[in-house]
Amino acid sequence: MRRPVVDLSDCVDCEGCASVCPDVFVRTEAGYIDVQDLDAYPEALVDEAIMMCPSHCIFWEDHEDPS
After folding, report:
1. How many domains does the chain have?
2. Above 80 in pLDDT, residue 67?
3. pLDDT, tens digit, for every residue of 47-59?
4. Which of 11, 17, 21, 24 has the fewest CB atoms inside 10 Å of its own CB, making it the most exposed?
5. Is 65 among the domain residues?
6. Which residue segment(s) compose the domain that 22 sits in?
7. pTM, 2 dp
8. Contact between 17 and 58 (Cβ < 8 Å)
């Protein structure tokens, strides 16, 4: 399964990803952007967030199914 990842060391905290795809990208209580754990991710919306990111810190990563 593909999962979006945010490289926090490059994130400029613009919240563009959260505005495009709020079900996937959320701000934590610590103030960082985090990716929600979902069974499936809306690829078109995540791809839009990736394209909009000014620091290019969002990317897809392949994860194995734990089952």
Report:
1. 1
2. no
3. 999 999 999 999 9
4. 11
5. no
6. 2-57
7. 0.88
8. yes
